[in-house]
Amino acid sequence: MPELPEVETIARGLNNHLVNKQIVALDIRCSKIINGDEESFRRIICGLRIKRIYRYGKYLFLVLSTEVVVSIHLRMSGQLFLNGYEAIPAKHTHLDFYFKNYNKKLSYRDIRKFGRLEIISKGDISRYIRTKKLGPDALEIDSVSLSTALKSSKRPLKALLLDQSLLAGLGNIYVDEALFLAGILPFTSGNKLTGSQMEILLNAISEVLQQAIKNRGTTLSDFIDVHGKQGSNQFFMDGALY
DNA sequence: ACTTCATCCTGTCAGC
DNA sequence: TGCTGACAGGATGAAG
Q1: Is pLDDT larger for residue A240 or for residue A190?
Q2: Which residues contact A31 (CB under 8 A, 6 or more apart)?
Q3: Protein-contacted bases of chain B (C-beta within 7 A)
Q4: How far apart are CA A6 and CA A223, in angstroms?
Q5: What gap in Å lies between CA A127 and CA A163, rounded to an integer?
Q6: What is the tens place of the pLDDT at every residue in A117-171?
Q7: Which residues touch strand C (CB under 7 A)?
Q8: Are A218 and A7 contacting, i.e. CB atoms less than 8 angstroms apart?
Q9: Which residues neighbour A107 within 8 Å (Cβ) at sequence distance 6 or greater?
Q10: Please, is A191 exposed, middle or buried when counting C-beta atoms within 10 Å of its C-beta (0-12, 13-18, 19+)?
């Protein structure tokens, strides 16, 4: 399932190909994946240009012209990829973006239909991040914030690290990897962590994420990048489960 | 205020 | 073989 490194890989891929492309049409085959009204989603987006794409935690933001932003969360099984614009949609492909003077379309595919796309009011991303109760991005968090977040709870570390309100971006795979690399048991209570363990853990999180980004994500089941290629990080992982 | 639990959905896999 | 049921998993909102 896509976590921070996978979403980052997709963001970079989209940035390489879609900046300044003008959206001319949307083909929405399953409106469930769109938060809010399908017709207004279409009406607002069509005609706008993509200015840039970036992510925060596991959220992807498409910044469009006139300050409109599309927020995308892939959840468990969402995929975003470029496809020949005449390609027959693969099963579970729920949405296609078409662009002016571009021979590809951007497809959203999602077997489990847990992912969501929505329009954010006038580029107000920071307020959106607060609304979603997202903590600091897992790649940016400093040791003080991490200590504060973890030491104030007796919940197991695994649950704490998965909690997006404490730090945003980690999921099952990278929590397991980081804890394994740090040599800390997942059921250790947050408030039992020593200062040096905290330091080791922070370094492990950072290392695990950066390695995964370098390897263009981890494909255990269905992650693909914008070209439909699988990640390679699974071949470089140390965690006991993999 | 904090923590746990059911829900969404479909493919996969174990058991019969 | 074919069917059935359990299970996985991120975020959310309800319940404990």
Answers
A1: A190
A2: A38
A3: 2-4, 8-11
A4: 7
A5: 19
A6: 999 987 789 889 999 999 999 999 999 999 988 988 888 999 999 999 999 999 9
A7: A 1, 3, 57-58, 73, 75-77, 112, 114, 132-133, 162, 164, 171-172
A8: no
A9: A79, A80, A81, A82, A83, A89, A90, A93, A95, A96, A97
A10: exposed
Q: If you search the block for the tokens 């040096």, which residue do you land on? A: A196
Domains of chain A as residue ranges with CATH: 4-131 (3.20.190.10), 143-236 (1.10.8.50)
- The pTM score is 0.94
- Return the structure tokens found at A226: 């914008």
> Which nucleotide's C1' sits nearest to the alpha carbon of A171?
C10
Residue A242: its pLDDT value, please?
A: 42
Active site residues of A: 2-3
Q: Is the CB of A31 under 7 A from strand B?
A: no
Is residue A75 scored above 60 in pLDDT? yes
The CA distance from A11 to A152, in Å, is 33
Q: Which of residues 98-157 of A touch strand B (CB under 7 A)?
A: 111-114, 152-155
Q: Which nucleotide is nearest to A162 (CA to C1')?
A: C10
Phi and psi angles of residue A204, each rounded to the nearest 5 degrees, phi first = -65, -45
The set of strand C positions with any atom below 7 Å of a protein CB reads 9-12
CA of A112 vs C1' of C5, distance in Å? 19
